[in-house]
Amino acid sequence: MTPQDMTIEILLVEDNPIDILMTREALKNWTIKHRLHVVEDGEEALDFLFRRGRHGAAARPDLILLDLNLPKKSGTEVLSEIRQDPGLSTIALVVVTTSDAGSDLQVCHELGADLCITKPLDLEDYIAAIGSIEEFWFSAAG
Amino acid sequence: MLWPSRIAGEVGVPPVKPGILTIPTFRPIPDAGTMPFIRLNYAGQVRVVLQITVLLAMASYATALAGNVPPPLNLNDRPSMFDLLGHIALYEDKTGLEDFDAIRHKPFHPISAAAPSFGFTRSTYWIKLALDNKTAERLTTVLEIANPFLDFIDYFVTSPSISHVERYRSGARVPWDNRVSQTRYPLLYIHFAPHEQRTLFLRVQSASALRVPLFLWSEAGYRSAERFQYLCLGLFFGGMLFLIIYSIFAWFILRQRAYLYYILTIAGVGACQLALEGLVPRVTIFSQPERMLHLLNAGMGLTLIFNIVFITTFMDARARFPVLYRILDVLLVISVVNAVVLVVDFYAGIVFIFAYGIILAWALAITVGMMWFWGESQARYLFLGQVVLQVLAPVHVALMVGFIPFNLVLAQSLKVAYLAQGMFFALALADGYSIMQRRFRTMLEEQVAQRSAQLVRANDNLEQQLAERKRAEQALRESEERFRSFMNNSPNIAWMKDEEGRYVYMSKTYEKRYGVRLADCYGKTGFDLWPRELAEQFRKGDQSVLSSGQPIQMTEEITGQDGTRTCWWKFKFPVVDPLGRRYVGGIGVDITERKRAEEALQEAKDNLEARVKERTAELEAAREAAGVERQRLYDVLETLPVYVVLLTPDYYVPFANRFFRERFGESHGRRCYEYLFERSEPCEICETYTVLKTMAPHQWDWTGPDGRNYDIYDFPFIDADGSNLIMEMGIDITERKQAEDALKQTLADLTKSNADLEQFAYVASHDLQEPLRNVTTALQILEKRYKSRLSGDADQLINYAVDSARRMKDLIADLLKYSRLATRSQPIEMVDIEKVVNRAMLNLESLIERRGTKITCDKMPAVRGDSTQLVQLFQNLIGNAVKFGRPESPQVHISARRIDNERVFSIKDNGIGIDERHFKRIFVIFQQLNKRGSFDGTGMGLAIVKKIVERHRGRVWVESEAGVGSTFYVAIPDEPLT
Fold first, then answer.
1. Would you state the torsion angle of the CA atoms of residues B15, B19, B24, B26, taken in this order, to the nearest 10 degrees?
2. Tell me: the pLDDT tens digits for B547-602?
3. Which residues of A touch B785 (CB under 8 A)?
4. How many angstroms away from the CA of B781 is the closest CA of chain A?
């Protein structure tokens, strides 16, 4: 399958609607075909990933954009659960967090996030970061 | 069924007659019939049962033999005695009224006893004997009934060839002269013609025990038996008499009561024997059976009692054998009772004797044996006597009962026993006598030995005393000699005068000093030897001693003939000799030298005193001055606004200044813990007294009993006399402490409020960020999507909004940073400023590039501090330097140098500079000097710098010239953070 044929499944785990909008906006710059799935809390994210509940027929995401600041289950818990599951460990995982505390970032890296983006960024910066993700990960074959 | 108890070894107990079934009997209460069975004691009951059994046996046997007429006794042999066994038949006449004619044809029942005994019975018994003279000669037999106590005996002798029946009478109740034979035992001579058969009928009855001991003798046999009997009796009674006479003699000689008792004992035995042998009518005037019974009574009583008394007295049991004496006492009491019972009721008495007899016999034997065993050799013969009786009596009984065939010799065995016993007693008496003699002799010998030992001792004593006396005399002589030489060698003079003042003694020294001799002066008075005045003086002294009886002493100066003056210290004292004569003794010591010395001393003393007076005056003056000084010091101490106390190691307070006294009271001689804290023992942990251990000053805080706080200083203090004390000074720091506490509290409050504020700022800014970010993002998205698509100045408005949002974001971010300076700090460490600067410049990379600023940096040292904050500091300062740099060739130079204990960093730029009047303001939060929008920035940068510098206990200031440039200085001390 050529990269052009691929449809990247992206799972966005985010509760802030503005941030969801921001992500959508950022993804508009992507050249690759992609489909964005949004879940608004950690539990639903896990349901999606493990194809439980109403996400029984969920697609396997190629990229997970995980906000750490989630209701119900915390982002770090979701992160660790995802990474503990061998079936999900190969999915690219980008953690987006409002925290710029060094300790949180360190934790995310330790738990297996591939990339950590801190949120208070300009839209432009965010778009650039998301763009770099596409560039870095999904254009590798090219 | 024999009753050996009745026989065994008691002196005086009537001997048992042969072949008698000795069933004890009892006299019935005349009106009550037979005594009720239940009223008897156990022994009596047993006896009654036995009696009944025997009678039943006899009756049954008789019944069995009923119809068997016993064969006639064959008299053709010529023994001395014929054996009647098996030839006796009985008939019981219950009424006692049947006469011979009625009886002779009644059926008689044979018995197997040769000596019928019926016990007590009211019946009259008929005994039938069939005798057959089988010889061809005339024969005379003698029928003897060996029981003198049968009341009535009727003889009926029949012969088949003669129709006439011979009738005879005998018995105890029959008067002596009316009896068929006046013999001790009832006798009947029966004559037989050759080949004649005769049948004898006996009718017997008695109020007492009905025993019929029958003996059939040939005439010759009887004679010899009788002779033998009388010989034995004669020997017996002769022996008894002999013993009595012997005892009487012994009593007269030795005057011992024992012998009297023995006489009584033997008399008792004799009386008993007389009665039992039926000799009473022959020998005495008494012929009635009652008299015989009385004699028997008396005899038995006497024997019972005095046998024991004799033994007790003879062996002196009371003194020598107290335990055995008690036993004998008990036996005596029982015997007395028995004697009384015999008198009261003879037959009960006999029962008593049967029961008690053997016990008594054995008890006596054993008691006497024990005495012998315990060393009383006198007892040996008595013991042997008892033993002989114990041995022979059973023999006698066995003979009488039939275990041994009848033998006249053995029949006397009991009498022999008594005689033997008597002999032993006699031996015992003799023995006793000789033993007594021996004892007496040994006692005498012992006394003699004692006495001679005493004499020897006395003699020794005397000799000892004599030797001592000699020694004492010798010692006295020696002592006198010693004393004499003592006196003569003494350098002091000594003399003695009598009551009249005449000299009786002068020591050698006296003689020498005064040039006189005792031999010349003896008996002379002072007036003879000395000048009148002197002599009078002496006499006065002597008289006062004599009258008062007390010693006196005086000093005298005597001018000698050559004018030399000598001084004497004399003692005169009364002397009394053992005879009571009084003297005046005197001794004198030459104190001339000493006097001289004294005088010299006195002179020196006077000199000294004068000098001392001078000195004292000087000292007084000095003391005055010192006193004033002292007073001053004292006043100082007293007025000090701190307390000063001195404490002794044993907790006393020798000094306390006014402050202390006012605060804590007067000690009044009490110990510190007593009056300060009202304790009875020292405080366990006393800070003050540690000084004594360490001998070093000690400072500490104390809350006194008045509740105030004191700062205490303790010092070891050497008192004037060298003793170790503690000096303590206490400063009242209550107010200060309170202020301190208030301050601490305020500090705590402020810190808290600060923390709260910072926390609040942090939280606020953190929480503000989120919606702000949303606004910014939304606006940005709006801008992106709808740029140039909206009408009018929508773009401008959106721009403006985005800018404002961005600006707010920056402000909040800075505010957050500012607040974090306090809440989030990293640990203090050595931070390489070189790295810090590099990091800051990295963070400002894009800005620097945009501005094209050239930044130079000197070698940077390391300082102690928070690395993150230092990065922020330099970032802000360098950022400002770059931001406010001049547009063309902006330059920034960073350098560092050391001043005292601070590192001073400088960031110099060639920018627009700052007006002097703004130097302070710029460090205040949110202050910007330029028009809004001219320069980026939230206005917090320098405020943050200031805060960081303050946290590092440093300083920040600026030097600047408008249009030239600014130099920001940051001084950080070596020990920045606390």
1. -100
2. 888 899 888 877 766 777 788 888 999 998 888 888 999 998 888 888 888 889 99
3. 25
4. 7
